[in-house]
Specification:
The complex is a heterotrimer of chains A (516), B (352) and C (330). With 352 residues, chain B is of the alpha/beta class. Chain B is built from eleven helices and 13 strands. In chain B, helix 7 crosses helix 8. In chain C, 70% of the residues lie in helices and 2% in strands. The N terminus of chain C is likely disordered. The chains are: A alpha/beta (516), B alpha/beta (352), C mainly alpha (330).
Chain lengths: 516, 352, 330
């Protein structure tokens, strides 16, 4: 079609899933405006698009959760009955959502067969459940996961494998994965790719939704770009250049995903000396200087989030010192850390960063209420200050009366940042700020971060996206198993180099960990 | 859950249940020891008392509701005092907060095999099965005040006549009002026999004494034997009725709240009030005269009588007045009307 | 824009469920007016109901703060009894109003502080800690004066039938501008509670703690101090409530306050404050208290039997909750 060769292996395979002219209208909103989409057996077809483009609606229609207003959905050439998730499952269309639909307190085997347990007479056949689950896990290359384990004991990456096994238990022909790499670190993503390759080798068609262009390039066969509810480009080759993909999504050329790298080199704002909080953090020392973005990379479990929490006084510090602007910070005192000028945007912005039921104003002013209270709270003042922050960061919508729940991931992250900017903090600690955020918003956040650094703040950026670390950081530190093992100059860093420092030399990352 | 865990859980649960019941659950043990005539307040001792000199020692265990209410408080004091009079009685008094825990308590007591059990049940019907069990185990039961519902649940029963209280109240109020007027009834705790009897006696006697319906019961609400409930209920009734001639309450302590409501509304000249029980506060107000005109009581001393009866049963003796001497199956203690005229007589029985 | 947001914007300051509960209150009042036209819709009766509402009302204001932090206080009823008896023992046989009030409120605050300590330092779950206090306080109420009530009728500033201003009994029956003192106190506390909840830093922190404790902590809210304070506050409210109750009752009774906590919690919850914490409304609590007061008054004045009262009260409460917006239900 556009002259680029398609990847081998995706040749004349049968079409397992086809969507024709799908339309879905909600009152006042046209979520899908005639989308065409098809998936071949054995291919990995990536779905790309900004938030609000219609990806989730498309998936919900295909999986039967939602009834389309018009159009057709065909599995193996036969139309799918509408609004019937059970029928969709029965025909082999399985979906893995970001919020894995597992029951934490049940075992792996029980989760895999939830809803369609093998029985012996009226009773559950536990033995068969276990052996069948083990077989499915083996098919995915994960026979190490014991089907008797409680799902709660597994790392998110392993839980995801269980979800996939569950899909397989329905004899999936089409497996839809909604941003699966969002909860994984670099090593786990590799493992996931292995699993995906196994599945496609068996003839399963995989729909892979992601915001990460590098992943699309690596695992995808074809890409469909959605924008504004329509197909901006259907089924193009996955190694289409990223700039082109971004242009298709956004409709215009985004200058660059990554703005100019901040230079750093100012005074030392934050100093951490031999911080220790066993078992996660085992003696970490580093400095943050004004004007820089300091990245911290590493695998999940390397202790990065724990390190940030320790610095901010949220978790207890067993040893070591945290010095801000020359003054030592008392441990376990989040209020002191904030007063000294630190601000944390936590890993899980929904459950830890924001109060979702509150409006944006209250979320933004929470850390700095002293500014607005002379006896009573100056509610109007709060609102105006919040509005100003939201505008400065181009938040959409910028109405401070909106509830936090209503905003997209990227905009929610801006609200969290606004809070600390209002407080005029000096060192921003960001834990996975672009997780689950679409490309245009990511670019925004990068712009904001580098601009803040340019203004003299120090920014610490913890991220599992190596490309991002290599893209905007002045320096990158790598943590492994609770210790800092490398410091790399941002300009010179490559993803490969960062990954090699992060990974434990002997075996791959361990997916199973008994949670204490 | 694996089998091992299941077994462990059962074992732990079993231990907990055993431990809790061994400690008596939420029952309170007030142990009153009688040691030959001295009127000591109880210090806790074991179930084995010292045996008296010659002859047999009768081991009596009493189970009553919590003695926080004035009348019940008098019950426990009188019972203890009576037990102290004899040196051949080993007496223990137990309190239980509600029917279930009282039943559990009595079950335990049965296993200790006392000679006689004296019971004032929280709820006669609920405690009947366990009383029957005691009887079946060879322990005679003396039932005070609130009746068990089966005849084989007790060897002897002594009760105040709640029905008669209602009757006396109807007589008094009917006469004072000359069979013409509006009456408000503030009842006790809804659903127990004491309350039902006091209401029934009142209603039925009123029909007899004032057959042409000149006395009308315009409101009938439970006050739960609680002064603050009595207060709020009466406040509302005062709102909806602007003419009240008399108030019949089921309890003196509760009546204090009712009285206050009337006084707060400045309507104490409009009506008069009667109570039940014979509390000191009531007696004082009756002596003063005015709003509080009368109270009806059967003496909490019946507990002392119950102890006497229990002792006789334990010694295999009976009332000498009866031929042959035996302990009657049912003794009904008469109720009395206490008014300004005769309050001096009854004051000695008043409880605080 | 989803529907709830649209409705909210339309109605402005009050939330939808507060309007709905207001309708329930009006409906109950109108029912009473129809069924008892001579006695129900009178100023006298309104004063009567507000006076009765004032005790639970004061407790409910404190309870609103506690529930907003996703906690609960089951001990308020028993604290009322214990504080009253304690104050009573201080002034028995002689002592003035001031001593009683200071003693009662001080004791209640002490009990509330014990709750607060158990919950924040002892890390005991609020349900259990306050359940234990319910028992302890009830026991104390019985112990302090040997199970007897304490008469307070002589705390009347000299005149028996017409208590002098600021004597204890005056708080029960005195009026200013025709409105009983209890009602002034109640309304004052409701207004004060509204201001603190909605226009003070503390109030904002309280709701933050209940809404998302971890997020609040990350934002620098002093979580432990906030939780400690709300239980002390609840104790304070119990102290004030007992002063109002004893003033009207003319005595401090050890068996008073029975199940008051359930009425307080019920009023707060049907008002729209979420038991899970994070959403609180003082207006809702006020309306909830009025609802319960109206139900009690109406049914007593209609002379309904207890059984009917129980069933009807339960049905009205269920109905009031069902009209509220779906998100508020749990």
């Amino acid at each position: 079609m556009n002259g680029v060769a398609e990847k081998p292996g995706a040749g004349a395979a049968a079409t397992v899933l086809e969507v024709r002219g799908l339309v879905k209208t909600y009152p006042g909103v046209e979520a899908l405006r005639g989308v065409d989409f098809n998936v071949r057996s054995g291919e990995v077809h990536c779905l790309l698009g900004p938030n609000g483009a219609g990806k989730s609606t498309l998936i919900k229609c295909v999986s039967g959760a939602v009834e389309p207003t018009a159009g057709e959905i065909l599995v193996d050439g036969e139309p799918l009955p509408e609004r019937d998730p059970a029928a969709a499952l029965g025909r082999g269309v399985a979906t893995i959502y970001q919020e894995l639909d597992l029951v934490e307190d049940l075992s792996v085997a029980q989760n895999v067969f939830l809803g369609h347990e093998p029985r012996r007479g009226p009773l559950l056949d536990l033995g068969r459940m276990r052996s069948d689950a083990a077989a499915l896990l083996a098919r995915l290359g994960h026979e190490k996961i014991d089907p008797r384990l409680s799902v709660r004991a597994l790392r998110p990456a392993a839980q995801q494998i269980v979800s996939i096994a569950r899909a397989l238990s329905y004899d999936a022909r089409v497996l839809i994965m909604d941003e699966p790499s969002a909860i994984l670190d670099a090593g786990e993503v590799e493992t996931l790719f292995e699993v995906v390759r196994r599945l496609t080798a068996e003839g399963v068609g995989v729909v892979y939704i992601s915001h990460r262009l590098d992943e699309i390039r690596r695992i995808g066969d074809r890409v469909t770009v959605l924008a504004d509810g329509a197909t901006a480009a259907g089924g193009i080759a996955a190694d289409t250049p990223p700039d082109e993909l971004v242009r298709l999504m956004v409709g215009r050329k985004v200058e660059r995903l990554y703005p100019e790298r901040p230079a750093g080199g100012g005074e030392t704002l934050l100093e951490v000396r031999d911080a220790r909080a066993l078992p996660a953090v085992r003696g970490v020392s580093f400095e943050v200087r004004a004007g820089e973005v300091l990245g911290i990379g590493g695998l999940v479990g390397s202790g990065r989030s724990e390190l940030l929490r320790l610095i901010c006084g949220l978790d207890s510090r067993e040893a070591g010192e945290v010095i801000v602007a020359g003054r030592r910070l008392a441990p376990n005192r989040p209020d002191r850390a904030i007063a000294a000028g630190l601000g944390l945007a936590p890993e899980d912005r929904k459950s830890q960063g924001l109060l979702l039921d509150w409006d944006l104003t209250k979320n933004i002013t929470l850390a700095d209420l002293g500014r607005f209270s002379r006896g009573l709270l100056d509610v109007r003042g709060e609102r105006e200050a919040a509005r100003a922050q939201l505008r400065a960061l181009n938040t959409v919508p910028d109405d401070p009366g909106r509830r936090a729940r209503e905003l997209s991931g990227g905009n929610q992250q801006k609200v969290v940042l606004s809070r600390w900017l209002l407080r005029e903090c000096r060192v921003l600690l960001l834990d996975e700020p672009t997780r689950g955020v679409d490309i245009p918003s990511k670019a925004e956040i990068y712009r904001i971060v580098t601009e803040l650094a340019g203004r003299g703040l120090g920014v610490v950026l913890v991220s599992s996206e190596l490309e991002e670390l290599a893209g905007i950081c002045t320096r990158v530190l790598v943590m492994r198993e609770g210790e800092l093992v490398a410091e790399v100059d941002g300009e010179k860093a490559t993803e490969r180099e960062l990954l090699s420092h992060a990974v434990v030399p002997t075996t791959g990352p361990d997916l199973i960990e008994e949670v204490a | 859950m694996s089998l091992k865990r299941l077994m462990l859980a059962i074992a732990v649960a079993g231990l907990v249940v055993f431990g809790v019941s061994a400690c008596g659950g939420d029952t309170e043990t007030v142990t009153v020891e009688s040691g030959g005539g001295t009127a000591g307040a109880g210090d806790s001792g074991g179930a084995d008392g010292d045996s008296g000199g010659s002859g047999k020692t009768v081991r009596i265990v009493a189970s009553v509701p919590p003695t926080d209410h004035g009348w019940l408080g008098a019950i426990s004091k009188d019972a203890q005092a009576q037990a102290d009079e004899y040196d051949d009685i080993d007496f223990k008094l137990l309190e239980a907060a509600d029917a279930d825990s009282q039943a559990q308590q009595i079950e335990q007591v049965i296993s200790e095999k006392p000679d006689v059990l004296v019971v004032l049940p929280q709820d006669g019907e609920a405690l009947t099965p366990v009383a029957q069990k005691a009887e079946a185990a060879g322990i005679p039961v003396v039932n005070i005040d609130r009746l068990f519902t089966q005849p084989d649940a007790a060897t002897a029963t002594i009760l105040g006549d709640n029905y008669q209280i209602g009757v006396l109240a109807a007589d008094y109020i009917g006469e004072e009002l000359k069979c013409k007027g509006k009456v408000v009834e503030i009842q006790g705790l809804a659903g127990i026999s004491v309350t039902d009897e006091r209401t029934k006696g009142f209603e039925e006697e009123l029909k007899k004494v004032c057959p042409d319906g000149g006395v009308e019961v315009v409101a009938q609400q439970p006050g739960d034997f609680n002064p603050d409930k009595g207060l709020t209920v009466m406040e509302n009734i005062l709102q909806s009725e602007n003419e009240i001639d008399a108030v019949y309450t089921h309890d003196d302590d509760m009546a204090q709240g009712v009285v206050q409501a009337i006084r707060n509304a400045d309507r104490d000249d409009e009506m008069f009030l009667t109570g039940v029980g014979g509390s000191q506060a009531a007696m004082d107000q009756i002596k003063e005269g005015g709003l509080y005109r009368a109270t009806f009581l059967y003496n909490p001393n019946m507990a002392a009588s119950a102890v006497n009866m229990a002792r006789l049963i334990g010694l295999d003796e009976g009332f000498d007045e009866l031929v042959p001497p035996e302990v009657p199956r049912q003794v009904i203690v008469p109720a009395a009307v206490v008014t300004k005229e005769n309050v001096a007589e009854y004051e000695e029985y008043a409880f605080d | 824009m989803n529907q709830a947001a649209a409705l909210r914007n339309r109605f402005g300051a009050l939330q939808f469920q507060e309007y709905a509960l207001g309708l329930v209150v009006i409906a109950l009042f109108v029912t009473g007016a129809i069924l008892r036209p001579d006695t129900f819709p009178t100023w006298d009766n309104v004063r009567n109901m507000l006076t009765q509402a004032s005790i639970i009302g004061v407790l409910a204001v404190g309870m609103t703060f506690v529930i907003a932090t996703s906690g609960i206080d089951l001990s308020v009823g028993s604290m009322v009894a214990a504080a009253g008896v304690f104050g009573g023992t201080l002034v028995d046989p002689s002592g003035g109003t001031l001593l009683f009030i200071a003693g009662a409120i001080g004791f209640a605050v002490l009990l509330g502080t014990i709750n607060a300590t158990a919950i924040t330092l002892g890390r005991v779950v609020p349900f259990i800690a306050t359940l234990a206090m319910l028992s302890i306080a009830r026991g104390l109420a019985l112990l302090l004066n040997d199970k007897l009530p304490v008469g307070l009728l002589d705390l009347n500033g000299g005149s028996y039938g017409d208590p002098a201003p600021f004597s204890l009994l005056w708080f029960g029956t005195g009026k200013i501008l025709g409105i009983p003192i209890s009602v002034w106190v109640f309304l004052g506390i409701v207004v004060g509670g509204w201001v603190v909840l909605n226009r003070s830093r503390f109030g904002r922190y309280v709701v933050a703690v209940g809404g998302n404790r971890e997020a609040a902590r990350i934002a620098g809210v002093p979580v432990r101090k906030v939780i400690f304070s709300v239980y002390v506050l609840s104790g304070l409210m119990a102290g004030i409530a007992t002063v109002l109750l004893c003033a009207r009752l003319g005595s401090a009774s050890p068996v008073s306050g029975n199940l008051y906590e359930l009425d307080a919690i019920g009023a707060v919850v049907i008002g729209g404050t979420s038991l899970a914490g994070g959403r609180a409304t003082m207006v809702g609590t006020f309306l909830g208290v009025l609802t319960f007061a109206l139900i009690f008054s109406l049914m007593t004045q209609l002379d309904l039997s207890t059984e009917i009262q129980q069933v009807t009260k339960g049905a009205i409460v269920l109905g009031a909750v069902l009209i509220q917006r779906p998100e508020a239900r749990y």
